Amino acid sequence: MQALVTHVLGARPNFMKAAPVIRALGAAGVEQVLIHTGQHYDARMSDVFFTDLGLPEPDVNLQVGSGLHGEQTAAVIAGVERELMERRPSLLVVYGDVNSTLGAALAAAKLHVPIAHVEAGLRSFDNTMPEEINRRLTDQLCKLLFVTSPEAIGYLASEGVASDGVHFVGNTMIDTLVACLPQLDAARVRAMHGLPERYMVATLHRPFNVDSPEAAALLTKAMHQAADEAPVIMPVHPRGRARFEAAGLAEHPGIRMCEALGYLEFMSLVRGAAAAITDSAGVQEETTFLRVPCLTLRPVTERPVTVTSGSNRLVRVDELASAVHDALAAGPYRGELPALWDGLSGPRIARVIIGWLASQPLR
Ligand code: UD1
Fold it and tell me: Whose Cα sits closest to atom 7 in ligand 1?
């Protein structure tokens, strides 16, 4: 079978980025195949996003599951290689910066399958985060690079990436948010979780915040101080659950830990929140769009536009309580939103891909 465009998705943040591209290519009648690597496999980390976002069922699930970086990435490479040899697509599309992104790109590059990267060129310049390694290496292998933010164009040029493949298209994660806005019912979801009108939402899952008992204990202390300001609801990624439970996070009466949530339920909570506390990448952008003050527990961000044109502030764990106090006092962000965050990035990408496919020699 020859599919024109094959998409590889693997982990939670990929799904929101891919849905608008798949929809726009589908509307244009492009033949597509969807490979799910299975990096995320719990119903709450994967299936619920396919339902919420109206994503088509994957054509194949490689079931790579969890593991060390080497094991997980190797399983993605081997599985995607097998699929690409069988299907011989004209283009592989990968998203974001997770292990599935890099694994799929490596498999395709060795088979000379051209690659497009959605969310290319973001840089934190912090190689201690696996995502930075994944995105730098992926970008080196791509023919088409779709960037969400203008500074990415300069970073790619300085890394020797040919400029004719680089397209500034805006942010497909924001497309998904725009498309789902009518379905985000903050009052209903807040009531479902028994929250008062003024509450905060928190997500913390990065290895440097959750993988050691010491880090989890420091974070727990800071979260307890934050919860003195307003109640906090915290959907917990499976990665951090045991550590946070052991550190006594839920022992503060203002903290509600719950299971990881689906897209619509989580974004409804963010929409209604007085502030967000996070170490996630996407939440920094989603809060900017929704104008919710965001405190990011990371030393650096690869999304600086959320700080310069948004409500995001990078904070250390010992600064969290005072930052929460200030954010609640300041209220929603009122400035300009970043360029091209208009809900039309998926169609822009589809136009470039269709033009590129038309320029290729017949197979
Ligand atoms: C991955 C991405 C990260 C992204 C995050 C979003 C990489 C390097 N990291 O991190 O950029 O922000 O997804 O969620 O790709 N687990 C489950 N069920 C699941 C998935 C994971 O229980 O469905 C648990 C397992 O214990 C696993 C751990 O979470 O070992 C980590 O999962 P993994 O996919 O390796 O990385 P994430 O921390 O989810």
Answer: 98
